[in-house]
Amino acid sequence: MKGTLKLISIFGGLVLWHILATRIINDTALLVSPLVVVVKGYEMLFVTAELYPHLYASSWIFLNGMLLATLVGVPLGFLMALSPVVRDYVNPWMTALYTTPRIAFAPVLLLWFGIDIASKIIIVFLGCVFPILINSFYGMRVVSREFVEVGRSFRLSRGALFLKILLPASVPFILAGLRLAVGRGLTGVAIAEWFGATEGLGYMIFFAGQTLNIPILFVGVAVFAILGILGFQILKIIEELATPWRKGFEVK
Amino acid sequence: MVRKDLSRGFLSVLGGLLLWEVLTRLLLENELLIPPPSSVLRTLWKLGSSGALNRHLFATLFEFVCGFSTACVVGILLGYLMGRYRWFDDLMDPWIATLYSIPVIAFVPFIIIWFGIGLLSKIIVVFKITAVAIMLNTAAGIKTIDPSLLELAKSLRLKPFETTYKIRLPAALPYIITGMRLGVGRAMLGVIVAELMAANAGLGYLLRDASETWDSPKLFVTVVLLAAMGMGSFALIRKGEQKLAPWRETAEW
Fold first, then answer.
1. What is the full DSSP assignment across A199-225?
2. What pLDDT, in 10s, does the model give residues B122-152?
3. In sequence order, what are the residues at sequence separation of 6 or more whose Cβ sits closer than 8 angstroms to the Cβ of residue A247?
4. Interchain CB contact of B231 with A (< 8 Å)
5. Which residues contact A92 (CB under 8 A, 6 or more apart)?
6. What is the least distance, in Å, from the CA of B76 to any CA of chain A?
7. Residue B80: exposed, middle, or buried by beta-carbon count in 10 A (0-12, 13-18, 19+)?
8. I need a labelling partner for A12 at 20 to 30 A (CA). Which of B54, B62, B84, B156 fits?
C-alpha cells in the first residue's frame, strides 16, 4: 500500500507525458514521448554504444575533480577549524569564491588553462570543494569541544589527539560533505563540458540542444539524474559502513 | 574597538588586491591573462557611466526577483500540502526528487526550447530551481514538527487555520529559509547559464560577450559583479534568517 501511490504517480505521469507528446503537442522538435526516450537510450547503450565515450570522459573529469576537492578541502577545513588566524585570513576569499555562481569562473579558467582537461577538472573542483571544506570545518569544530577534554585527561600528545579523537569524530561530517558535493560536482561537469569540449555528457546535451535533438537531450538529462542519485546513494552506504555509531550529521 | 577577525579579513583582502596589482604590473606585458585590479575598476566605471551596465544588471535582477518570488509562494504552498497530506507527498515525491537531482544546467536547454530566449525562459529557470528546493524543505519542516506543539494547539482549541498559521508555518520557517538559501545559489547559477546560452541582455550575456571578444577587463568586471551579487543575496538571506527565526543558530557561511 505504501508504495502504490508513488507507482501510480510515476506511471500516471508517464502516461500523461506520452499523451501530451503524441496527441496534443505532436512536434518532435518540442517534446517526444517517454517511449521514444527509452528506445533512444537503449540504442545509445547497446546498439551504437555512442554513450560510453561521453560517460567515460565525464566520469574521469568528475572523479579527478572530486579527489582534488577532497585532498584540498579536508586539510584546509581542519586548518581553519584549528587556527583562527588562518580562518580569518582565508575567510573573505573563500566567501567570495563560494557565493559567486561558478559559471562565472569558467571563461576565466578557460583563458588560463586552455580547453584541456585541466580547466574542466578545476571547474568541478570549485564546485565540490566548499561543501567538503565547510563540513570538515564544522566536524572538527563541533567535535573538538566535546572530546578534547577526554583526550587531555588521558594525557594524549597533540598528534595522538588529532589522530585518535579529532579525525575519526569528524569523519561523518566529511562524508556528509562529500555527499553534498556529488550534485554540485555533476553540475560542474556539465558547465565544464559546455565550454570548448568535444565529448562528455555536458557536450552531448548542449549539442543536442543546439540541434533540437530532443530524444538525446532527454537521455542526457536522465543519465545525469541517474548518476546523481547513484552517487548520493553510494556515499550514503559508505557513510553507514564507515560510521555505524552515529546517524544524520550534516551541515546544510 | 575593531574586531580582530574583521581586521584580519580586511587586511587579507587589501593585501591580496595589492599583491595582484603589483604582480600583474611587474610580470605580465598585456592584460589578457589577468588584468590588474585598477584596470578592472576603470572598466567598471566606463561600463557603468555608459549605462550599459545598468541594463544588464537590471535584466538579471528582474528575472531573478520575478522567478524567486513566485517560487516562494508556490513552493511553500505545495510544500505545505506535501508535508500535511501523505497521499499528496507520495504523488509528488518521485517527480520532485527527479527534478531536484538533475543538474541545473542540464535543464536549461529544454526551457529555452520551450519558452524562447526572452525574459520568460530565465524567470522559469529561476522559478523551477528555487521552487523545488523550497518545496522539499517546507515539506520536511511541516513533517518534523514537534508533536507537543500540536498538542498545545489542541488544548488551546485553535481552529485548523490558526494551527497552520500560528503553529505549523512558524515551526517550519527555519526549514523554509534553508530551502531559500539553497535555492538562491542554484537559481543564480541557472539564470546566468540561461543568459549565456541565449539572451540579449543580462550579466550572463555580458560574460559571454566579454569572453568571446577576449576582453579580459570586461570579463573580470562581470565576474566581480556576479561575486557581489552572490554575496549580497547570501547576506540578505542571512539577515532575513536572523530576523524571522532569531531562535535559530545561523551557519557561518
1. SSHHHHHHHHHHTT-HHHHHHHHHHHH
2. 999 999 989 998 998 899 888 888 888 888 8
3. none
4. yes
5. B9, B10, B12, B13
6. 19
7. buried
8. B84
Per-residue pLDDT, averaged over A32-46, amounts to 88
d(CA A38, CA A218): 9
Torsion of CA B217, B219, B223, B228, to 10 degrees: 60
Q: How confident is the model at residue B1 (pLDDT cuts 50, 70, 90)?
A: very low
Alpha helices in chain A (DSSP H): 4-19, 34-42, 51-82, 84-99, 105-113, 117-153, 158-161, 167-194, 201-210, 214-242
| b/e code A141-151 from CB counts within 10 Å (16+ = b) | bebbeeeeeeb
Are the Cβ atoms of A6 and B223 closer than 8 angstroms?
no
Q: How many CA atoms lie within 13 A of A188 on its CB side?
A: 30
If you count them, how many residues does chain A have? Answer: 252
- What residues of chain B lie within 8 A of the CB of A191, using their CB? 105, 193
Q: Provide the CA A18 distance to its chain's centre, in angstroms.
A: 31
Return d(Cα B122, Cα B194) in angstroms, integer. Answer: 6
Q: What is the rounded CA–CA span in Å between residue A62 and residue A117? A: 11
Quote the pTM value.
Answer: 0.81
Write out the three cell numbers for B217: 577587463
Query: What are the tens digits of pLDDT across the range A168-205?
Result: 888 888 888 898 888 889 888 988 888 777 888 989 98
Which residues in chain B are closer than 8 Å to A208, comparing Cβ atoms? 109
**Chain B residue with minimal CA distance to A92?**
B9
B223: closest CA of chain A, how far (Å) = 6
Report residue A81: phi and psi, to 5°.
Answer: -75, -35
Q: Could you tell me which residue, B124 or B246, shows the higher pLDDT?
A: B124
Q: What is the longest distance spanned by two Cα atoms in chain B? A: 76
Nearest Cα neighbor of A62 from A181, A216, A196 is A181
CA distances for B10 relative to A88, B16, B184, angstroms: 9, 10, 26
Report the candidate in A104, A72, A180, A77 with the shortest Cα–Cα distance to residue B231.
A104
DSSP classification of residue B163: I
A252 vs B243: CA distance, rounded Å: 19
In this structure, the dihedral spanned by the alpha carbons of residues A138, A144, A147 and A149, taken in order and rounded to 10 degrees, is -160
ipTM: 0.76
Per-residue pLDDT at A251:
46
